[in-house]
Amino acid sequence: MTMVESILLCLLVTLVITTFVGWRAGNERRDVNLLAGLAALCGVGAATALAV
């Protein structure tokens, strides 16, 4: 695992935790959806980096 993959995975975990905390705190739905979308994009990037 390279440094880029490690950073992407850490960013993914951070975004997922932030999304969960935002959802549990009762933030607006659009804000939580935006965080979830960013987490999904980061997940796709991390998966691509790991596959290549």
- Tally the helices: 2
Largest sheet: none
What is the rounded distance between the termini? 11 Å
Binned strand content: under 5%
Spell the H/E element sequence: HH
List keywords for this structure.
single chain; 52 residues; mainly alpha
Question: Describe it for me?
Answer:
- The termini are close together.
- This protein is 88% helix and 0% strand.
- The relative contact order is 0.19.
- It has helices spanning 3-25, 29-51.
- The protein is an all-alpha fold and 52 residues long.
- It has one domain.
- Helix 1 (3-25) packs antiparallel against helix 2 (29-51).
- The chain contains two helices and no strands.
- The model has no long low-confidence stretch (mean pLDDT 94).
- Keywords: Membrane, Transmembrane, Transmembrane helix.
- The chain crosses the membrane at residues 6-25, 32-51.
